Each structure stands twice: as C-alpha cells, then as structure tokens.
Amino acid sequence: MADLELIQGILASAETKILLLVLDGVGGLPVEPGGPTELEAAKTPNLDRLAAEGVTGLHQPVAPGITPGSGPGHIGLFGYDPIRYQIGRGVLEALGVGFELEPEDLAARGNFCTVDAAGVITDRRAGRISTEKAAELCAELRGIDLPGVEVFVEPVREHRFLLVLRGPELVEGVADTDPGREGVPPLDVVAEGAEARDTAGRVETWVNEARKRLKDHEPANMVLLRGLARRPDWPLFPAVFGLRAVAVAQYPMYRGVARLVGMDSVEVGPGRDELLSALENVWDDHDFVFVHVKDTDKAGEDGDFDRKVKVIEEIDGHLPRIMALDPDVVLVTGDHSTPAALRSHSWHPVPVLLWSKTARRDGVERFGESHCLRGGLGICRSDDLMPLALAHAGRLTKYGA
C-alpha cells in the first residue's frame, strides 16, 4: 500500500514525463471455455511491443474479490488507497461538469432509466438517450421544489445527470436507489443512520415527484441515484507526487475524479482524433498525463465482445502517435475489469504494463491476462503503481541512511 507521506518525503526533481493510459474496463473473460479474453483476442502489436520491452502484471483495484466502481478504480491508479479515500459518485460528476460545489452541498449521480408498468427496471440507461434529450428532461426536473433546500439538476452525458441539494441541515448517509441491475424495481430511499432521516425524506420527495413528471416519457421514465455525498478534503496529487498533472478524458466523471485530487483537466470532443490532439496539446506543460478511453467499458457493459476487441485494436493502432511524444514512463491498464460475458464490472485483477528504459524485462511478450499473470509485477495493488512509475521516472530518492 502506497504511503503518501513517505512518497512526499523522498521526492526528487527530474525532467521526466509519465503517461497513464487507462482503457476503462479492459480486463475480460473468455466467452467460451478455453477461449481468449477480449484483450487476448485483439491484435495488438504495439501494446505487445511495450509489454515485451517493459514489465507486466495484474493489479487489484481494491482487494481480492471486491468489484470496484469507477471512482475507487481510478483513485487507486492515482496512488490513493481506495478503501481509505472513499468518495460518492455524485461529487465526481459535479467536478466533471465544472459545477462549483459549496461546503454544504450534497451531490448525486443520476441515471435516467426505463421502468415497465409494474415499476420494474427494464433498462438502467434508458437506451443511452442523447445528451440533448437528457438536458430537456433535466430542465423539467428543475421545477421540483423542496422547502428549505436549493435544488440543481444538470445534464452530464447521455443518460447521466447530476443532482445537487444545497442546504444547511443536509447530511450524508442516504443509500443509493440504483440496484445496479435490471429486472427489479428501483431501491427505496433509505437513511443509513438516524441523523440522515430528514435528508432521506427530502430525497424521497424529489424522487417521487420526478417519477410523476417522467411517467409519460419514453424511454426515460424514471431516475436512479448513486453516491450522494459532499466533497472531501484530501491531499492533492501535485503536492504528494511532485507532478504537474492533467486529465484528458471525454467523459465528465473521469475529469471529475482527476480534479478531485488536484489535477488539471481538458474537455475533449467525441472522436479519437480529438482525444489524441488534446493529449498532444497538453503534453509540453505537464509531467503526468492521464488519458482515459471509455469505449472498452461501454462495450463490456453492453455484452459486446467483438466491439470491445475492436476498440482495443483501434487504440493499439494509435500507440505510435502517442509514443512519438517520447514519454519516459508509460503505464497501460484499466480501472477495473468489465467482461462482456458478465455485462458488468467484475472483481478480476486487471492487466497492467509498465514501460520505461529502466524497466526490468520479465520475458512476457504479449499484453493479455494469461501473459500478464506470468509478469514481473505479479499481482499487486493498484495504488502501488504510482510509486513504481515515479521510481522508473527517476523521481524518488533513496529511503533512509
């Protein structure tokens, strides 16, 4: 487990650059016994070259057997213990869209979803409605009044929206209403402790009114809420790791988790060229660049094995353009596994490769789950990757006499 105070105490200055390339949900499973995973099925000559020239392994995003959300998945990759440093998804969405959270604010991540006549969820993402449609629905929900509470409802992307409640008497401790699966009704609004009962009652009032206002809309006729929380006060990434850091991500949530720990961020258009151009534009002014690719995760959640393979191959094809920037250290991994066979996040360890001129080669010549299992990094914790990247970048001094 990375010790942030220890790391901060042995930092060394160096003119080196670190690239963290996160293929969201890249870890997978075979769809038939003895078959390849998505990563193993993909033709990835460039990733394979980096694996052969570097060192590989698997990382546990949180702990063995624990399925992580995207928030803790990234917190670990940024070098923070995801069990100690916990955060609700709503704060990440708020920071991702640039919403200025005040100390008394509670923020929740919302999904527009589809329920049938019996109130059972048939699609947690309402067919991934357009961001424009979500903005129209958010405008309608802004009219819901809660006495003594100021309410903000903002679109995020596609079916996602942000709900912020502002008021002096609000407290944390309201459970999610999103059950995380289809075929069941949304969960009731429940206080996790006696002190949160009043806040839970206000949230319940809002959800019930949202249900009434959305009931005639198709396919987005209900809402699901996750991660109602306040913004925490954490040690910031630039101070802890001595790096000028920036996030290049197309989805607001991932810019949000980067901003939470003090990174800069840039908004990026929807195409792959926009992502790579943004990377090139920020490269000279930063020591650490986090690049996020969402489409691997989306394909996995949709159960589309072949599309996930295609996305991985597409990213591999862009690696020469990325490596032309001449990074000193490259980490390629995912924040969690999202096997198409499961159509969801999973607990499986995630493949990782670390490339640098100082990497001790481990004999692995391909980037895939079964290959990385034999790698020199072994099965490590996700929050151990940042100290390794710093060491390979010449940014840590000797510890002790």
UniProtKB/TrEMBL annotation:
It catalyses: (2R)-2-phosphoglycerate = (2R)-3-phosphoglycerate. It holds the Pfam family PhosphMutase. Its EC number is 5.4.2.12. Transmembrane segments: none annotated. One of its GO terms (molecular function) is phosphoglycerate mutase activity. Keywords: Glycolysis, Isomerase. NCBIfam families: apgM (TIGR00306), PRK04135.1 (NF003160). PANTHER family: COFACTOR-INDEPENDENT PHOSPHOGLYCERATE MUTASE, METALLOENZYME DOMAIN-CONTAINING PROTEIN. This is 2,3-bisphosphoglycerate-independent phosphoglycerate mutase. It comes from Candidatus Kutchimonas denitrificans.
